[in-house]
Amino acid sequence: MTRSDRWFVVALLGGILAVIITAVVALGVGRKNVSPPDLQEQPNPAIPGEILYVNRESCIILARASGESRRQVACTGIPPRLLFFLDETRIAYVDAVPSGQNLVTLDLETGRELSRTAYKDDRTLLLQSAPDGTQAFQRDDGRIQLIRDGQVLTEIKFDGLDWGPQFAGWSPDSQWFAVTYNPPRGRGAELWLVSRDGAVRGTLAKDAGTPAIAWRIAGVGAWPLPPE
Amino acid sequence: MSDLDADLRRWVEAGILDPQVAERIRAFEAARAAPARPAADRPGVIEVLLYLGIAVLAVGVFALAAQNWGDLASPARVAVTAVPAAFTLLLGALLRGREEPGMRRAGQLAWAAAVGLSALALGVYIWEYEPFGLARDEDTTPFLVVTAAATGLALLLWAVSPSVLQLLALGASLFFLAQAIGQWPDEYSASLAGGSLAAAALAAIALAETGRLVPRTPARTIFGLLLAVGAYQPGFSSGGTPWEIPAFLAAAGLLAMGVWRSSFQYVLWGVLLLFAALVRAIFQNFSDQLGAPVALIISGVLLIGAVLLLARLAPQLRRGVAT
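Structure tokens for the assembled complex are given below, as produced in the milestone run.
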């Protein structure tokens, strides 16, 4: 074997690997777009109501669930764990600091802090429950099962995901739910809205922070229910 | 005097054999009976103990570093991994030119270790300093960069010193690079990882069979195994039925290649891949209809068949290699 043979091996194997890496990295070969349609680009009027969510900068955003519009309400500094619509003009969030949890009430229009009280409830598990009693359970392979009275009503599959999206909350009419999906390479978490039968899906946000949402529909109410 | 000497002497004295022919027979038999390799070519006890000492020392250093990792600043963390990497690279370069085979082997071992240590050092550097926009919380790109760099280094070290250990380092880094490629899409793609590995292994096998990738026997062993793993991965990790086919194609290819090139290594990997693919396919697709006991019985029959096939082919292949 001559020296040129060795460099031929280096060039050939290196070239093949370079072609594969270029195809995968630059051309996106093998990449599947697992995200539902972007609701900001293609609003879906079938999705009702308004949603509060938290973005990566720990700011609370009020968005039309259809994706038509959104605005920033306030930035909290600490990522809120829970969000609530209190009434037409006020919202609340729960922050978690080492000294304990606080329930902070904000003016929805201005974002001004109205009050801050200690919060002792743990309602995290309740977020899996819909107003009509349906429970959402995350399963392997990106599946979410909707269960009521011990019966599996339906199973929503999220193709192409090794790990299912994280359940975030229900709509007040129990017909929709929200999940957050964490894509790789440090991209922001996505907030997906999914109809109860899984047929209609949309990506409401691509900069979501914590999987905390509150949803309200005019004439129906808000979910989750505000703390007493 | 050996039996052969006595016989030759009798045949020469009887006028059956010319003395020159008898001498040539003696020389031929003497050469055949001599050890295949000089004693210096074989690892001695001292060399083995030296390797053991280096391994124990390395484990100790890494254990010490791991225990105190939290107290180390970023430069110290990089140094803890980069200094051994540089040391093994230098050691391999120094020992490569030595005449003693034991020293040359130690140099090859140092370079094989250098590939892993360099990858570790680069990984720690990226983690600590996040250069060129490589974020530590975004694991796919750093993994791809580190494994690509390790593969490039392994390839270069093999080009400088083509040896078994450099081939091993190349094979290992290729495996991890393929997994990094599979990790690149939003979700891990077993078909992309396996396909990349199989493509690289196929190229390496072609190079080995044309005499360019040497030493050939370990090259066949390493890249035959990588081809089998790469072909198996897509169908049986998460891909499903259509992706099972490459494993069977690769098994058939390895078997055909083994018979054609008289290579026991290809036949071995081909038979093992065929066995694994069949068993997995039976359990994946038919266990519901057949039930686990029947699937196990079929798997047992396949295993016996695989062993019998290997036993039948092995002597022929050994004869083929000898010729």
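The mean pLDDT of chain B is 84. Residues 21 and 27 of chain B are 10 Å apart (CA to CA). Further analysis is deferred to the final report.
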